[in-house]
Design goal:
Distance between the termini: 44 Å
Shape: elongated
Number of helices: 1
CATH architecture: Sandwich
CATH topology: Jelly Rolls
CATH class: Mainly Beta
Oligomer: single chain
Structural class: mainly beta
Radius of gyration: 21 Å
Largest sheet: 6 strands, antiparallel
Number of domains: 1
Number of strands: 9
Helix content: under 10%
């Protein structure tokens, strides 16, 4: 004889939240620069504001591609050698490495409590050890910010 049981669990609720980041300025952080090995260029501060209604963890990615005068293979050479340093106030380095490796950084996400913002500094440099291999190569880089309400598991 089959046996069935059921129970009513009253008071359960489900809801939604708004996860939203606003970046300022929305213009390019770096103007075209003809870096030579050993040179670096900084950017104006980038404000990352949590304009949603919940605390978020954000991650930074570099979406890079060949510039006007470079092939995809040449762009890879430059992306592997061009260093990007990202720091949040107060003096917390979020990433320091090649542009080609800037994906899902910081690895545990950066907590940004609503409705606060972070001020980020960026410096791009071409190490002295680069040599002539990157000469006359160009690269297009978009910095992509992704936010979620909990850190990645």
């Amino acid at each position: 004889m089959p046996f069935t049981i059921s129970a009513l669990n009253a008071g359960n609720e489900a809801g939604t939240a708004e996860v939203d980041l606003t970046l300022s300025p929305t213009t390019a952080l770096f103007s075209p620069a003809n870096l030579v090995p050993g040179e670096s260029v900084g950017s104006p501060q980038l404000a990352v504001a949590n304009t949603g209604d919940v605390d978020v963890f954000y991650y930074i990615f570099a979406d890079w591609s060949a510039g006007v005068t470079s092939t995809a293979a040449e762009a890879r050479i430059l992306a592997d050698r061009l260093n990007i340093w990202v720091q949040a106030s107060p003096e917390e380095v979020l990433y320091d490495g090649p542009i080609s490796g800037l994906a899902n950084e910081p690895s545990d996400g950066r907590l940004l409590v609503s409705p606060n913002d972070d001020l980020l500094d960026f410096v791009v440099s071409l190490p002295v050890t680069t040599g002539d291999i990157a000469q006359n190569l160009d690269l297009h880089v978009d910095l992509v910010f992704v936010a979620q309400s909990s850190p990645q598991a």
